[in-house]
Amino acid sequence: MSTVDRLIFDPPIREWSLSLRADAVRNGDQMRGRDQWVQLINRNVSRLGIGTSVEDGRVLLATGHQAGLWHPGILAKFLALDIWGDALKKMARGSGENSGGHSGGENRTTVVGRTAEKTEKKAGGKVGGGEGVFWVVADQDANAAWTFEVPVVRGDELTTRRVDLAKGAGVAVGNMWRGAKTGVATSRQKAVRADVLLAGLETLRASSDVGKSVVEGGDAGFGNEEQLDLLADAIKAMPDESVLENQAAQLAWVLDYLMRERLGISMPVVFASQLNGLTPMRELITAMRDDALQCVQAYNTAVRQYPEAGMTRLRIDPMHVELPLWRLHDQGRDRVFADMADSKTILVNDRGDEVAIDDAGLAPRALLLTALMRGYGCDLFIHGTGGGVYDQVTEQWWSTWRGEKLSAGVVASCDLRMEFDVPVADQTAVEQAVWRAHHVRHNLDQESVVQANEADSVAQKRALLRTMDDDRDVTRRAKVFEQIHALNDALAQRYPALIQQADTALERARQGLLNHEVAHRRDWFWGLYDDAGLQSLRGAIAKAIQ
Fold it and tell me: Is 27 helix (H, G, I), strand (E, B) or coil?
């Protein structure tokens, strides 16, 4: 079984509707181009067969992540978006249903429902629901999309192995990701043939040390065969390269297949690499070019204000100012600068080549992507814990440079742990095992089985220990010590199992300490977890709305 150790919501999920600012977001310049977002979402629905079309005028709720086989903390965002959005829609429609099943009184669920209903009237649209949610694939990132780590058990030892399905052989060497070009965005990584991915999966399945890794429902197995079969089914069912042209699209499709089959979730997608086709993005690029110094000074000030976010400041030179943009191409990602050397400012890459504003390769970096989503693309965005930290930088930057308040940003995540049939221990447990192994050797007379069967020897040793301090003669005291050791040795010969048990416990504790970090990891690919664990996560999120 998998265990839900922790759910993270900030603010509490029951209060998210209070954060919806659909009425404010739908006024003025921030709503320009919303129809283009809806059209983009619906084109992707039609082209990829993922999710349900979005109705124009609907309040949009969103989340997002990289293209990859991500962990349950990311899955929690999708579950929260689906469950909360659906509950919000039902309440807004006045169906009388609510997630908590409460009736009467001014409880939290009632407040949520009234807020949602009020928001719908002001916005002139519908709130929540499957067709009002979508996710953005951060395919401008250069991550190895088909690479993930698996737990490996060899006896009592728990370690990890990095798997790259795109490599075909299944297991990467060291830290090399041979299935992806280093530094190339997933939107520019060519789609991988299904037979290559399946070959990698079969290599993983055939690995004996991996194949006995995880205890699920009482049966030893890697996740279990059913879960690996489902991943294989998803890969086999993928449309060909004419539809899924790159690895980002492939991963979006496979993840949707798995979420749909295992959790009943399917929501449309947009890709960060597509956003430069929208008016809001091009207008922002123009604004950044023409106001580069003020834009980036505000950006860097915000980055300095929140060092815990780990964001990097942009470069400011006398005639070149780095902008929060990438220019994506098949060999990598170029940084983009505002070149102010002449009377007319232009965009250039880091080699000095001019880049047009309508260049299809232009894509937002992390903070700009969040600003686009919350400023133009949706009315509430769900971050993970990391995104929730760096989003403070986005808000500060946007407020200073644009003088605008972004739509609501909230946080959802979880810790879902696998259970392993190996020893797991902390430092305290090791210290206790060390003490026990030393103590039992010299104090077998204190063991209950010895006391029951060796009354004379136990009594003799205790009498010697009780009286030895009364005699200060060195020679006689040495003889008493010899007698005590002889009694201990005799008991050790008759009860070797007690000593062996303590030694074995110490070995397991020491190995358990080595296993501790891996055993407590929360970031295995969520598709490897058992159904009971995933349903437990879903249930815990639904309960949090009550």
Answer: coil
3-state SS record for 68-99:
CCCCHHHHHHHHHHHHHHHHHHHHHCCCCCCC
Distance, in Å, from the CA atom of 77 to the CA atom of 542, rounded to the nearest integer, reads: 12
Relative to beta strand 170-171, strand 214-216 is unpaired
pLDDT (tens digit per residue) in 8-57: 999 998 888 877 644 444 445 556 678 899 999 999 999 999 999 988 77
pTM above 0.85, yes or no: no
Q: Which helix (DSSP H) or strand (DSSP E) does residue 64 occupy?
A: strand 61-65
Nearest to 444 by CA among 484, 396, 394: 484
pLDDT higher than threshold 50 for residue 112 = no
Which residue carries 């294989």 as its tokens?
232
Q: What is the pLDDT of residues 153-206, one digit of tens each?
A: 888 899 888 888 988 644 444 433 344 567 899 999 999 999 999 988 888 777
What distance in Å separates the CA atoms of residue 238 and residue 242, rounded to the nearest whole number?
11
Nearest to 366 by CA among 154, 91, 66, 161: 66
Strands (E), 225-378: 269-271, 320-329, 332-339, 346-349, 362-364
CB half-sphere exposure, 65, CA atoms < 13 A: 23
Residue 519: HSE in the Cβ half-sphere, 13 Å Cα cutoff: 19
